[in-house]
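User: Need the bound-state model for calcium ion:
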Amino acid sequence: MIVKSDNLVYNMDKESKPALSVSLPIQLTYETLDCFEGQLKTETDTLENLNFDRVNPATGPVYFENVKAGNVLKIKIADIRCKSPGIMVAAPDAGILGKMVTKPQTILVPFTRDSVNVLGISLPQNPMVGVIGVAPAGDAINCGTPGSHGGNMDNTMISPNSTLYLPVQVDGALLAMGDLHVCMGDGEIMVSGVEVAGEVDVTVDTANHLNLKNPLIATEQAIATIASADTLDIALDIATADMANLLVELGHMTINEAGMLMSACGNAQICQAVDPQKTVRFSMPKDVMTRLKIKID
Ligand code: CA
Ligand code: CA
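Assistant: Bound-state model below.
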C-alpha cells in the first residue's frame, strides 16, 4: 500500500487526520518530498527565499488499528529510493559553521546508483531517513524537532536493512516520515545532508517484548539506543543509560559489567548537532550482543 506525498504534516500530532488506517503487520511505501518541500529548484534559490512553514514535511501519518499506547512499533526499512538531484545549502548562522558563513549558497547534487557528486567529489550513496516518528502523547512536536517519539533524529543508521523501534505514545501510533538524504555525515553540521525526495519501503509490526522509553535501531552490524535532548551532553547521558539498562535487563549483567563492556567496545556517536534538540546514539557491535544472547527482534 502506498502513502502518497500529498498527505503531508509539519507536526507529529495526535490530532492529525490519518492518511491511511491499516492493521499490522503491513508493508507500506511512503512517498516523501525533500526537506524544503521542493521549494529550492535551482542553485539561485537560497534559504533566504524559503517559506520556513513548509520545511521538513513528513508524509502520513498512518494509523495502525491494532496498536495501543505503550506498545513498541517495529519498522523494518526494506528499501530507500532517492530521486536525483539532491540539494545542499549553506547560510549565515545555519549549523555549526554558520558563524563563518557570510553568504547563502545552494548546490544541486546529481547522483547515480554508484556515486553522489558533491562539488565534483564522488561519494558513495548512504540513503537514510532523517525524519521518522510517531505522535507524542502530549503537545504536537514540529517535524524539525527530535525526541522520544522519534522525529528529526537524522541518524545515518536509519538506512536500508535496518530496523527502527519506537515506543508508541498514543493508540494507532500515527507513523509519519520524510527528510530523506542520499548521503549525510554524522552531525549534519551545515543543517542539510544531501536532501532528496524519494520513496521508503517499510514493513511495520510490533515488538512488545521490548521495554523502551526512547528509539532503538538495529542494523546488520550494530544495535544502538537513540536519545535527543537540549545538549549533546544530556543526550549522551540518556543514550548511554538506555544501553546500560538494556544490557542489565536483557544481558543479565551488573551495571559495572555493562558499563565496562560498553567502554571496551561500544561507540558514543553524534546523529545530529544542529536541530532544536541534539541527537546522540550509543552503538554496540551486533556480534557482541549476539554473544550475550541479546536478541532484539
Ligand atoms: Ca533532518
Ligand atoms: Ca535533512
